[in-house]
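Data card: per-record layout.
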Amino acid sequence: MSIPHNNNLDVVIYQGGYGSGKTWAGSLLGILMARKYPGCRGLVGAKEYELVRKTTLVKYFEHLEALGYQKNVHYKYNKVDKIITFKNGSEILFSQLDDPEKFKSLDLHWVEIEEASQVGDSTIKGLLGRLRNTYRGENWPEFRYRLFGHTNPEASKGWIYERFVEKKQENWRLIIAPTTNNIYLPEHYVKEMQASYDPEYYRINVLGEFGDYNSGLVVKNFTDENVKQLKYCEDLPLHLTCDFNVDPMMWGIAHKDEENVYFIDEIVVENATTEMCIKEFIRRYPKKDAEIIINGDASGDNRSTQSQFTNYATMRKVLRDNGYTNFRFDLRNYNPPILNRIAAFNARVLSANGTRRLFVDKKCKYILKNIYNLKYKEGTTLIDAPSIHQIKTDRDKKFLLHIFDAISYLTEYYWRIK
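The structure for this 418-residue chain is written out next.
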């Protein structure tokens, strides 16, 4: 618990990769503070209380048990008020931090923040203003007010980078802890992430380093090595992955194995209905006993197409009416966030261990157009989708995003990054 400066306030962020022991270290420090300074008052919080309840609070109880603390003997936990009270008079309050007004009246000795990158700079300022409790016990050696947080790295330059790198002060300390430093993790853990993540994602979320992962192109590390001359193989299952925008409607067609995906074709129809597109698929792939696996947009409802059927019900009916029987739907119950789909897609393009597992046929011009041109809005994690005005002035822009949605549904479904 030594602090390498003489300032009365210590602010520290423990920034680490997945499995680097961030919550473990933060909750242990909270208990040590309560133990070392009898009668002190600390606050433990996160942007949302569910994160505190399911993660941080669980780790506190695990530490207390390991240290031999018995509930209702050495400490009490008030589930309603969300407070741990120790026999020595120390208190630890647990709260969400989404609204600084909620803790405006608190007088604290220390604060711990779970997933600190998720809270805003205004919340940090508010918490610093609460570190003002003047109570001191008889034996409080070298007491300092402390704010300590732990977090995965920010995807782009946020308040942590600004305060701890660009405007660093002596008493604001940043500790970077790579996942690889945790010797207690299973042997396969880091190797699996090397194989599953793209290099930039690995650098940020395993090595714990700062990055600008969400700037520039959405698809990272795609090169000519990912472009192949591919052929339809009648003996292999055919994946049809769908997005249901009307103009244009854009679907991807692929083969896959356990680790690799091969996009062999695309269906792009302007001012389309689902029925029009599935009939185009039947025209191109007339083998009626072929195994067909349909992936794509989990909603598949009629909001876009205005069909009397849902999109997938329409596809099922048209396929059956045309003699196709060997087909199924592999869909999620919900659409995952776009950033999850992007991470899964990029990990197939190039993993951190240098393996490429996603390939596109040269004739898939719209898939390639999206891979080479789809960008983030500068300084955000939002994809720069073309506006109606931009599409009116540049017709080609309407072909951005929708086919990437379609093909990324497939990669996220089979190779979800957890």
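Known properties of this structure: The longest helix spans residues 49-66. Residues 302 and 310 are 5 Å apart (CA to CA).

See the next section for split statistics.
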